[in-house]
Amino acid sequence: MVFEKKVIINGEPEDEEEEEEEEQEMVDPLEEVRQKCEEIEHCVHNRERLEQCETRVGSRSSTEEDCTEELFDFLHARDHCVAHKLFHSVK
């Protein structure tokens, strides 16, 4: 039997460059799918309504209106799309 003796200096592995490359390659599939879903027509429409509401509310100095409904509509549309696509991209 032959044993190799490796010395680790300062607790760092020898192949530090390979580990850094592996870390850079990791991408959250959820974020990618969310970005793609935000580009479909239904999500674009809901995002536009949300942005219009935010502009309207932001232009007033005193208002009780908020954009909760528009935000929930947008998130619901995006998450509905994501639910159908996410598990196809997960290994």
Automatic annotation (TrEMBL):
One Gene Ontology cellular component annotation held by this UniProt entry: mitochondrial inner membrane
One family name in Pfam for this protein: UCR_hinge
Compositionally biased spans, kind Acidic residues: 12-24
Stored Gene3D superfamilies: Ubiquinol-cytochrome C reductase hinge domain
Residues covered by region (Disordered): 1-24
Compartments where found: Mitochondrion inner membrane
Positions of disulphide bridges: 37-81, 53-67
GO biological process: mitochondrial electron transport, ubiquinol to cytochrome c
Primary localization class, coarse: mitochondrion
InterPro entries the UniProt entry points to: Cyt_b-c1_6, Ubol_cytC_Rdtase_hinge_dom, Ubol_cytC_Rdtase_hinge_dom_sf
Keywords: Disulfide bond, Electron transport, Membrane, Mitochondrion, Mitochondrion inner membrane, Respiratory chain, Transport
UniProt signal peptide: none
Domain Ubiquinol-cytochrome C reductase hinge: 28-91
Membrane topology: Peripheral membrane protein
Function: Component of the ubiquinol-cytochrome c oxidoreductase, a multisubunit transmembrane complex that is part of the mitochondrial electron transport chain which drives oxidative phosphorylation.
UniProt similarity note: Belongs to the UQCRH/QCR6 family.
Protein name: Cytochrome b-c1 complex subunit 6
Native source species: Anabas testudineus (Climbing perch)
